[in-house]
Amino acid sequence: MSVADRAIEAVDLVKTYGKGKREVHALAGVTFSVRPGIVFALLGPNGAGKSTTVKILTTLSAPDSGRAAVAGIDVRRDPGQIRRLIGYVSQKPTFDPVATGRENLVLQGRIHGASAAQARARAAELLDRFDLTAAAGRTAGTWSGGMQRKLDVAMGLMHRPRVLFLDEPTTGLDPEARMGMWAEIARLAREDGLTVLLTTHYLDEADHLAARLAIIDAGRVVASGTPDELKSALGGETVRVGLAAAPQAEQARHVIERLPGIAAVESEGTVVNARVADGAAALPGLLAALDAAMVELTTVSVARPSLDDVYLHHAGRTFASASLSPASLEGVAR
After folding, report:
1. What is the pLDDT of residue 25?
2. pLDDT at position 4, please?
3. Same fold, 3-100+143-227 and 236-304
4. Strand arrangement, sheet containing 73-74
5. CA-based radius of gyration for the chain
6. Dihedral, CA of residue 327, residue 332, residue 333 and residue 334, to nearest 10
7. 3-100+143-227, which class in CATH?
8. Rounded to the nearest 5°, which phi and psi values hold at 294?
9. Where are the domains of the chain?
10. Is 80 exposed, middle or buried (0-12, 13-18, 19+ CB in 10 A)?
11. Pairwise CA distance, residues 143 & 267, whole Å
């Protein structure tokens, strides 16, 4: 991918907070690139380094080392130009709750240099697009969570940016509102040709929306590609067994590893995952071996590899357990 083909580029980004015993490496060499006109996801658990990366790309923070560019412009050399080219929607609401939806949008347009007439026209266009026109005259603080999130995204689009950054755009939304937001994000890339970078800790969101994604863990990109490429690279199917007691996991792992046709075995807590070429064919022998070893099972499933399997393979732990681990300083840096 040539420089001209990169809407976003991050090369060996390093960011450290604190000193001495309190030093935390939020980013430890993050590298990825995004071609124009797609939805790209930074997928990782809380504290992985996603928000820190976005803050650097949007000029809100500076890296200790490394290089970043948006639309071919270095974020350090010309941050003012970057800000004119991008839209940024943070995790926390940025609208004024005592102003109406229309007033919020018009003010945002005026801040970006639009005339009053231009701002009103663009606000009307976005209110219609996000199905917010009926509520436009009400104070935004009275809107539902899903409507407020749409308003935040609309505000990020008022100046017609070339690249839109969405930091955890659906956190806290109910399932219906999440699906609605997914549809709007997909439409921005498909119909408007907008480059969208979103951070998310929802596996299904990245799988559904992203043309390409980078999995980030502990400040490093551990895998990148299309969702299908990453899942297909694992090969075969995954047999997942849940155990009655965690101490039996190591025993179960040793039993399964000795069976023919097992490509890899990974365990965490009370769950053991085995990758096989054909789950249906491998399952009877696997269950018989565990029964003979007196390993007590609670659940058994067979499935094609998922992004959770991809994360487990590259990060060495399940996504759920990573999300429950103590957050790094990314959360503090917000």
Report:
1. 87
2. 54
3. no
4. 24-34, 8-17, 65-70, 73-74
5. 23
6. 100
7. alpha beta
8. 60, 40
9. 3-100+143-227, 236-304
10. exposed
11. 45
pLDDT value of residue 328 = 42
Q: Are 251 and 293 in contact (CB under 8 A)?
A: yes
Is 320's pLDDT higher than 80? no
Region 62-74: mean pLDDT is 95
Q: Is the pTM of this model over 0.85?
A: no
Whether the predicted pLDDT of 112 surpasses 50:
yes
Average confidence score pLDDT of the chain: 91
Q: Which residue from 86, 85, 124 is spatially nearest to 105, judged by alpha carbons?
A: 124
Residue whose tokens read 């357990």: 321
Q: Is the pLDDT of residue 327 over 60?
A: no
Burial (CB count within 10 angstroms: exposed 0-12, middle 13-18, buried 19+), residue 276: buried
Check if the beta carbon of residue 165 is closer than 8 Å to that of residue 58: yes
Higher pLDDT: 68 or 22? It is: 68
CATH classification (class only), 236-304: alpha beta
CB 156 within 8 A of CB 109: no
Integer CA distances (angstroms), 205 to 7, 45, 105, 196, in order? 22, 13, 27, 14
Answer yes or no: is pLDDT of 300 > 80: yes
The CA-based diameter of the chain, rounded to the nearest angstrom, is 77
Please list, residue by residue across 43-69, b when 16 or more beta carbons sit within 10 angstroms of its beta carbon and e when fewer do. bbbbbbbbbbbbbbbbbbbebeebebb
Distances from the Cα of 334 to the Cα of 44, 50, 98, 222, angstroms: 16, 11, 24, 23
Q: Which of 189, 115, 133 is nearest to 157 (CA)?
A: 189
* Residues 122/132, Cβ–Cβ less than 8 Å: no
